Amino acid sequence: MRRAFGGTGLSDEQKQICSLARDFARDVLRPGSALRDEQEDSFDRTPVDRLGELGFLGMLIPEEYDGLGLDMLTYLFALEEISWGDPSVAVSMSVHNSLPTQTLLRHGTEEQKERWLKPMARGEMLGAFSLSEAGSGSDAAALKAQAVREGNGWRLNGSKMWVTNGASADVVLLMVRTDDPADRKGTRGIGAFLVPTELEGWVPGKKERKLGLRGSETVGVSLEDLRLGPEHLIGEPGLGFHYALEALEGGRLGIAAQAIGIAEAALDFARDYAAEREQFGRPIKDFQGLQFKLADMATRLEAARGLLYRAAQAYGADEQRKRKLSSMAKLFASETATWVTRQAVQVYGGYGYSREYPVERLFRDAKVTEIYEGTSEIHRMIISRELYLERGADE
Known about the structure:
- The chain folds into three domains: 12-126, Butyryl-Coa Dehydrogenase, subunit A, domain 1, CATH 1.10.540.10; 128-241, Beta Barrel (Butyryl-CoA Dehydrogenase, subunit A, domain 2), CATH 2.40.110; 242-394, Butyryl-CoA Dehydrogenase, subunit A, domain 3.
- Helices cover 52% and strands 14% of the residues.
- The chain has eleven helices and ten strands.
- It has helices spanning 12-38, 46-53, 72-85, 87-98, 100-107, 110-121, 240-276, 288-315, 319-348, 358-367, 376-394; strands at 127-130, 146-150, 153-164, 171-177, 190-196, 202-204, 218-228, 233-234, 278-279, 282-283.
- Helix 4 (87-98) runs antiparallel to helix 7.
- The mean pLDDT is 94.
């Protein structure tokens, strides 16, 4: 199912970038994906650094800040390919491109962009993002980690959870409260800080032992009297939550692309296995039951891809519809990935349940796409709300 880029409307340069992503996924990422999954107590940052050397960590950053200056659709094409090779590596690429770098680009000062955004675009610094806490998952604004003014700077204390690359990234976009504990201001009492992880007081925990994406690094972090100067605050001190939601709209498209890459890999494996596996004297692909299953898998995959590309087109051109479409794309692609990988396990039969075969790992990897950057339930709420907002605007 590896896609040809002809007829996509991409320029020759963009097609070359996507082909480079495909080659990297096939030749570099896929051969080591099973080993990275098995070594879940350690994290190998080498594949991510190599992506940076190739320019894939600066795809959405303008050339004036040392990025490639590409559009969202081209980025998603490339991210699908990387996800096809190894979803654990793709999540680092997605987080870096959509969350810390985009927030810096939109709300950082020129000095902050020079100091941090340019090295991040060149792949010399890896970025991460931290919003969630133990008691604030879907209710993200309920976070409690606190920043207190100290002179012209800040002192931070608290705990964060589920930080991708939290121990290995060079800088982390961190959301903490900036309002007074005695006078909470809700979503307008949260600030965004860019934290170099080398600073004293940034204390990452051990790598989480997860169901899937075991090759990626997810940690909890303690903030222990972490002192930051005023240059670390991004934008206004009470608008960090707004910045986070803004960045997550693009991040959802990245997770949708990751889910599609996972589903496509599962379909590829299932198709090839069905052609090789024989039962009752012939390949199982000749049985109508398997043919229908593969047809349904391929159809749902293409439907998810079409919705994602429509959302990507609206992302930079239709402010009114981009929130709804990004939630739809993330919801549908993630649930498609879980469904397709489950069918792939069924195609393999007993072998699909064995860790000796790749569809078992893809099945585990797919599940989290229904959870992070907004659960499926949260996205259904967003979509429903946007339907009524659209109706109000029309009236």
